Prior knowledge:
This protein has helices spanning 15-28, 32-36, 75-78, 182-191, 238-241, and strands spanning 66-72, 90-102, 108-119, 126-142, 155-158, 162-169, 205-215, 220-231. With 247 residues, it is of the alpha+beta class. Strands 1, 2, 3, 4, 5, 6, 7 and 8 form an 8-stranded antiparallel sheet that branches. The longest helix has 14 residues, at 15-28. The protein is globular.
Amino acid sequence: xxEDHPTGFRFYPTEEELISFYLRNQLEGSLQDQLHRIxxxxxxxxxxxxxxxxxxxxxxxxxxxxxxxFAPMQEREARGGRPSRSTAVxxxxxTGTPSSVYSSDxxxxxxxxxxxxxxxxxxxxxxxxxxxxxxxxxxxISPPNSNSSSSSMPAFRLRHEFALCRVxxxxxxxxxxxxxxxELVVAETIQGGDGGSGSGGGYGVSVSSSxxxxxxxxxxxxxxxxxxxxSMETEEPIWDWEQxxxx
Length: 247
C-alpha cells in the first residue's frame, strides 16, 4: 500500500479490511499520511455525490466505480444530536436497517448502514443512482459470558469519531465490480448449475449468521446472534453480497 502501484492497480478491499485495517488505523491515529493517499478525511455529507470523485485519495482518483472517505463526526452529533445528511440540492436517505460486518473468524467487527441520494426536499425527493455504505467500528464493552448457557451476547459501543464511507453509482449489473473474464464466469456457473449437492461447485448448503442489535441511551449495544442454513441453487450476484475482493 505504501509504494507506487503498477498500471491496472485497483483498490477493492473487503469489508473486513475496510474496518479492521483502514478504519482502525484512522481511529488510532496510525499511518495517517499513507492512509489518506487512499482514503482522505472529508465531510461527504456537505457535498453532492457527483462532485466527490475529485476529492478522493490520490491513488484512487481515477477510479470510475467507487470512492472511499473518512467522514469525521459532526459537531451536532458530538453534542448528542443527529448528523446532517443534507446538501444544497438533496439529501442522503437510509435504506433498510443497519447490519453487522463479520471478520473471517465470524466475529462482529463493525456495523454498516446503506443510503441512497435523493435530489430535492424530503420526503418528495427524486431517487438517484448514487449510493453509499457507511461503516463504523465497534468497541467491546464487556465480552460474552462464557458461563452462561444462553447465546453469546457481547456488549459493545459504536465508534463515532470517524465513519468510513464507500460511495458508488448503481450500474444495474451483477458484475459491476467483477474483473474476471466473462468466459470464466460462465464456466463456473455451468459447473455449479446442478443444484450443488456436492462441494465442487460451492452451491450447496451455506451457513449465514444474522442477529439483532439493541442500543440503550448510553450508546451501549447488545448483539444477539443466530445461525441459519439456506440452500442456494444459483450463483449469488457478487454485488448483492457487497464483498469486494482483489481480482
